[in-house]
Design brief:
By secondary structure, the chain is of the alpha/beta class. The protein has 27 helices and 22 strands. α11 packs across α13 and α23 runs parallel beside α24. The site of zinc ion has 6 residues, from loops. It is an enzyme of class 2 (transferase). Catalyzes the transfer of a methyl group from 5-methyltetrahydrofolate to homocysteine resulting in methionine formation. One of its GO terms (molecular function) is 5-methyltetrahydropteroyltriglutamate-homocysteine S-methyltransferase activity. This is 5-methyltetrahydropteroyltriglutamate--homocysteine S-methyltransferase.
């Protein structure tokens, strides 16, 4: 019999119960017992839901109060020395210290989990690192489920992925992969204990199979699974997801383990090869239900690969599952009372995906629930043909885009001259990245307006007053290029998404980003267009208040798509192109409204890079093209800026230059301008604003610090192409510190001008 299988379930709760409980505990408003009770209730209800849906192999230890990678560090006793851990049991308080930092110890670094918007805590390794079994969570949760009548399949991050994603933090020259010899025995010990407790399966997540692997990683994988496969009384399943296996297919299929899981959404092309290669008794879990997106599965289409695997391996060696853990999708559609039935009928969140898995597992064994299948087929047809998705004018416009649309009229040098003539800026022009502090007052006005307690007129007047104040302040301080402050925006993607056709928003569609931070990504369901100008009224108003140039402020097409759930019925690049055209309209309208400079933020440009290097070129080509399409509609005199929040540009600098923005602002203050290296080496041809003020901290940098940073920049870049600005927008900061820091920043720019 084919088994209905799950890899992981969202831990946050239908109503973000986990967030409320952890934050209350951190604040001291709730004790440990109440936190633990919330955790236990979430697990109980998640297991219950899965059991009721008919999932036969249910995961445990997929729950976490913060992050599964952090849990793994605790489980194997890898707590950095600075947290002064007693060395015995790494409890939840130890985990929270690592995640959040203490007065004595800075928090562990956090970074993105593969190409998701989920962040994990980076394991740290030093010469002193010694692993040992130090956590009970995985065992406790197994027992907990057992008491509920469910023999779960415990899940943990596999040893190769664990070592690969960690970093060496001392300067010992340690080879982190050499730690495998110490780490693997701890994994073996865990497997043995779970076997003794009665677990039948143990899932080890190794998504690094979706990456380009080096020899050291391959060695660790071989060693680890040779050792783990030897543990008696428990079956090991290695789970691969987030992409194709490609050159790793041989290694993967030759692992001597009892089960393998593959991502049959992104890796659908490889299912047959994997099944053909599988020898002996190995079970294959085929992840046909998309764990990364919110669309209903096309059940009829999903049965195809399942039937093929069944015919090769037999149903006793087949499991059906989601492509990856369901952690990356919202919990349930049941709460979405705001969405209409037609739209709801296209979606499946985690709970609904469980039903799809169960249907498919039964269907492949011949028990096709015809009613479910035909309802699903109708939903597929309805969505494919819906007038809400297809906008002929958008399709025509995309098809009519010409080479010229991707270009400014003249090359940068010529544009720069014209812009200089028009803008008449001093050396080291001073500007900011766009947003000013989103005070409680600003957020309240927006909430009141949304609720209907503040009229449109009242809200508009409020925002205008904020703009007046911001303009006055910038003039008084001596800024050369002003911004309106973005007071009207809740979020740089949501604001535009709400005004564009083709976007939808859920009410409870939260997904964990990190710890107690959840995001509610918009859904791009149809052809995107801009019914009306989105920012013009605010920018135009701001410009009317001053003789200084005002910078219009927009979010770029890659970021608009990257931070959303995206339609799966056309290539991502096509969706990005539609968004680019919509934003291009706004750029043109801003120019017509008298804005001499327009900034198009691409915060997620680097984030969109594919996991495999071989795929970078194609991505960078359409991503840079989409930027040029967005910016290509304006005259040479109009100055186009872009902004990117980070940092590492080494491997994408050519593409950045290819975007051909007149000016790019980047984050450089924390790295002491080191991050400029890529620009210097490449001879980046256009203007740059290297951030001189670290906006991630409330600390006010002294004038001299910023002078030093700017001097460093002038040593490596032509001074006439340098701008002065902070690292990023100021919306998360308070006014008091911002005012001080900006005064210092202006003083620093003046000092450089004087020295020239
Ligand atoms: N213009 C945006 C702001 O200032 C840019 C933010 C970002 O790129 N993260 O807030
Ligand atoms: Zn930024």
């Amino acid at each position: 019999m084919t088994i209905a299988h799950n890899l992981g379930f969202p831990r946050i709760g239908e109503r973000r119960e986990l967030k409320k409980a952890t934050e209350a505990y951190w604040k001291g408003d709730a004790d440990y017992a109440s936190l633990a009770a919330t955790g236990a209730e979430l697990r109980r209800s998640n297991w219950e839901k899965q059991k009721k849906a008919g999932i036969e192999l249910i995961p445990s230890n997929d729950f976490s109060f913060y992050d599964q990678m952090l849990d793994q560090s605790c489980l194997v006793g890898n707590v950095p020395e600075r947290f002064a851990w007693n060395g015995n049991n790494a409890t939840i308080d130890v985990a929270f210290d690592m995640a959040r930092g203490t007065r004595e110890a800075i928090a562990c670094e956090m970074t993105k989990w593969f190409d998701t918007n989920y962040h994990y805590l980076v394991p740290e390794f030093t010469r002193q690192t010694a692993f040992k079994l130090a956590g009970r969570k995985i065992f406790d949760e197994f027992e907990e489920a057992k008491a509920q009548g469910i023999i779960t399949k415990p899940v943990m991050v596999g040893p190769a992925t664990y070592l690969s994603l960690g970093k060496v933090t001392d300067d010992s020259g340690l080879d982190k992969f050499a730690l495998a010899d110490q780490l693997i025995p701890v994994y073996v010990e865990i497997a043995e204990k779970l076997a003794a407790a009665g677990a039948k399966w143990l899932q080890l997540d190794e998504p690094i199979f979706a990456l380009d692997l080096n020899d050291a990683q391959r060695e660790v994988i071989k060693k680890a699974y040779d050792a783990l496969a030897g543990v008696k009384g428990i079956k090991i399943m290695v789970a691969h997801y987030f992409g194709e296996l490609r050159d790793n297919i041989e290694l993967f299929t030759s692992l001597p383990v009892a089960g393998l899981h593959i991502d049959a959404v992104r890796g659908v092309k490889e299912v047959e090869t994997v099944a053909t290669r599988l020898g002996g008794e190995t079970v294959l879990s085929v992840g046909v239900v998309d764990g990364r997106n919110i669309w209903k599965t096309n059940l009829e289409r999903a049965i195809g690969p399942l039937n093929m695997v069944r015919s090769k391996l037999g149903s006793d060696r087949l499991m059906v599952g989601p492509s990856c853990s369901l952690l990356h999708v919202p919990v349930t559609l049941r709460s979405e009372t705001k969405l209409d039935d037609e739209f709801l009928n296209w979606l499946a969140f985690a709970e609904e995906k469980l039903d799809e898995i169960v249907f498919l597992a039964q269907a492949v064994d011949g028990n096709v629930d015809q009613a479910v299948l035909s309802t699903n087929q109708r939903a597929m047809v309805d969505r494919a043909n819906s007038a809400r998705i297809h906008d002929e004018s958008v399709k025509k416009r995309v098809a009519a885009v010409t080479e010229d649309d991707y270009k400014r009229h003249s090359a940068y040098t010529e544009r720069a001259q014209k812009q200089r003539g028009k803008l008449n800026l001093p050396a080291f022009p001073i500007t900011t990245i766009g947003s000013f502090p989103q005070t409680a007052e600003v957020r309240k006005a927006r909430a009141d307006h949304k609720r209907g307690d503040l009229s449109d007129a009242g809200y508009n007047a409020f925002v205008e007053q904020q703009i007046v104040d911001a303009v006055k302040m910038q003039e008084k301080m001596g800024f050369d290029m002003l911004v309106h402050g973005e007071f009207e925006r809740n979020d740089m993607v949501e604001y535009f998404g709400e005004l564009l056709a083709g976007y939808a928003f859920t009410k409870f569609g939260w997904v964990q980003s990190y710890g107690s931070r959840y995001v509610k990504p918009p859904i791009i369901f149809g052809d995107v267009s801009r019914p009306e100008p989105m920012t013009v009224r605010w920018s135009k108003y701001a410009q009317s208040l001053t003789d200084k140039p005002m910078k219009g402020m927009l979010t770029g097409p890659v970021t608009m798509v990257e931070w959303a759930f995206v339609r799966d019925d056309q290539p991502r690049s096509e969706t990005v192109k539609q968004v680019a055209l919509a934003i291009r309209d706004e750029v043109v309208d801003l120019e017509a409204a008298g804005l001499a400079a327009i900034q198009i933020d691409e915060a997620a440009f680097r984030e969109g890079l594919p996991l495999r290097q071989a795929d970078w070129k194609a991505y960078l080509e359409w991503a840079t093209a989409s930027f040029r399409l967005t910016a290509g509609g304006v005259a040479d005199e109009t100055q186009v800026h872009t902004h990117m929040c980070y940092s590492e540009f080494n491997d994408i600098i050519e593409a950045i230059a290819d975007m051909d923005a007149d000016c790019i602002s980047i984050e450089t203050s924390r790295s002491q301008m080191e991050l400029l290296d890529a620009f210097v080496k490449f001879n980046y041809p256009n203007e740059i604003g290297p951030g001189v003020y670290d906006i991630h901290s409330p600390r006010v940098p002294a004038t001299q610090e910023m002078v030093d940073l700017l001097r460093k920049a002038t040593q490596v870049l032509p001074p006439e192409r340098i701008w002065v600005n902070p690292d990023c927008g100021l919306k998360t900061r308070g006014w008091a510190e911002v005012e001080q820091a900006l005064i210092h920043m202006v003083d620093a720019a003046r000092e450089l001008r004087a020295a020239k």
